[in-house]
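User: quick one - fold this with pyridoxal-5'-phosphate bound?
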Amino acid sequence: MKQDKSYSAVMSRRNEIMKKSVGIDYESFEQEGIGFSYEKMMREASPYSLSEIQKIQLYNGVGHTPLKELKNITKMVRKLAPKGKGARIFIKDEALNDSGSFKARRAAVSCYHAKKKGYKGVMAATSGNYGAAVASQAAKYGLKCIIVQECFDSRGVGQPEIVEKARKCEALGAEVIQLSVGPELFYTFLKLLEETGYFNASLYTPFGISGIETLGYELVKQCENEVGRTPDVVVCTNAGGGNLTGTARGIKKATDKKVQIIGASVNLKGLHMASDYQFNRKSFTTGHTGFGIPFATYPDRSDVPRSAARPLRYMDRYVTVNQGEVFFMTETLAILEGIERGPAGNTSLAAAFSIAQELDDDQIIIVQETEYTGAGKHHGAQLSFARENGINIQFGNPRDEIPGENIIIPKNPSLIKVNDLDLTRVKKSCIKNHINNNPEVELTEQDILFLMEEINENKTFVLEILKELGR
Ligand SMILES: Cc1ncc(COP(=O)(O)O)c(C=O)c1O
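Assistant: Sure. Structure tokens for the protein plus pyridoxal-5'-phosphate:
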């Protein structure tokens, strides 16, 4: 019998399709009420231990990336910082993974698992580095690979960074399906999963997140062995939350010492991610607040029933930087350190440049990733594209930047300053989303415990918010 491929029919088969394509029975981790057992899911859904994952990655061109001290940038920080301040800045050079970013760590476990379970191919819905990562890992195993990306606005104009990613995916042997902005992405993805029977290498399964744990683990061990001190602060560029979650979990496996975990996103306040007009008025396609805030406050908006990326469980502080500040740091990294890298890692670098000035000069701050650059990913290409789209580019104070209207390159590095988001507010909004999504549920002690873990806060804090919400 011919299957109904209409939008509503495919969407109604969504759970079945997902279950078959990731091989995880999410129901088995659900609890009564609003919660689920996150740690049980992380332990049981992906059966690979940290050391097994390290081996899988090492064998496949992933991990063991160098930790590099940015000596000249640190000197510049110390010129701007008060006496005795100015932490040493290091970067973990993740661009040296085979596909050019930390996303290779995520893809490594999914592709290994897909091959082991006998899938013929892998698929991912992503406009970012993850496509290249899946394509690269799939090539190693002889798996077929399809990447579905949201690329164009309705005029058919592609965001240069996403166009570059399509090129890279195709170069690595993947088939790339390019769509315009809109709701058809998820539908197309589900339909293709059903038709092909391929493995869904989702960014948000325990396979992907456990793959990133090796990054956090490595950076602590390298810092201790090569520099002689546990890092004090680690800055992670945050979008869907997996980068921060996996890194923080790996850090906890490497040390009992407190390492402050800071999330950093590019400030794109006021720009709507689903807007056709605004799609090409932003110069960053990931690591920005348009993903960072919604995913932190409601992780299960992802393409699997329960996301393994839950950054509020680990985040100690959440800061933003502006587009112009990241472009400035991109050039600074190239010109002062001789390292030319792409946008997402440089988001954290811009944040670290400011935060290092608050820390003592014997402390260590690590920017936990770099990514490759080139073609449309390059800041030169992004700035030209922004200008073509009517964005005003000028030198000045980045505080005056209005996303979608202008890009302000700091006229002086002393103007690069992080903006602290109110983490309490972000946490409240996470609780509110859990409650609003389950309006009928009578909250139990188990639910309260789940909420405490979700936002890493004590019972008094959670009860206070619930009271404000009338629960
Ligand atoms: C290079 C790079 N860094 C950081 C991120 C953010 O990771 P996450 O979405 O897991 O927060 C991305 C995601 O697209 C990325 O490609």
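One thing worth noting: The two ends are 49 Å apart (CA to CA).
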